[in-house]
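ARCHIVE CARD
Drawer: 12
Card no.: 0347
Subject: one protein chain, sequence and derived structure
Cross-reference: see card 0346
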Amino acid sequence: MNVYDFDQTIYEPDSSYSFFLHCLKYHTRPVLAVLPESLILLIKQKRGKVETAVLKEQLFSFLPYLSSVDAEVERFWKTHRQNIGQWYLEQKRDDDIIISASPEFLLRPMAEALGVHLIATPMDPYSGKIRGRNCHDCEKVRRFREAFPDAHVDRFYSDSLSDAPMAALADEAFLVRKGKCIPWPKSVR
């Protein structure tokens, strides 16, 4: 099986931020209400003073004000599906697994449309609160092994060296840069 990161790997750019901007367009007031605190936390997160999960919960704290999160996610994918990389669509297999730090509720419809398995951050779509842990770094490996304890990973694809723990599980690993796959640096695996 092949395992893929989602954001900036098979989807350009980042689905969480794309969804945030999409909702800003259609639900301006509630999204603008969370924007100042989100920007402050973004700066703190970039400086290493706030965990990404805290920023993510703040970013999605507008969700309770949407009349239907499911309908909004569906509308989002109608206009953003074309951001799935053609390179991925050409090599997609039915046993592919997408593993992502993005919210599961956001990625689930696309994973189902692609016909692949999904492991992502468990977030309550009605509150924006993460249930459990953000699916990032070593948490990806833990969640992958929990879901597929005996699975063999042929290839792993990601845009980020922070996914080195997942890359170490694969026979081959690739960094993806704007749809171009280059071998994972051996020194980082």
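Annotation on reverse: The first helix runs from residue 15 to 26. The chain is about 45% helix and 15% strand.
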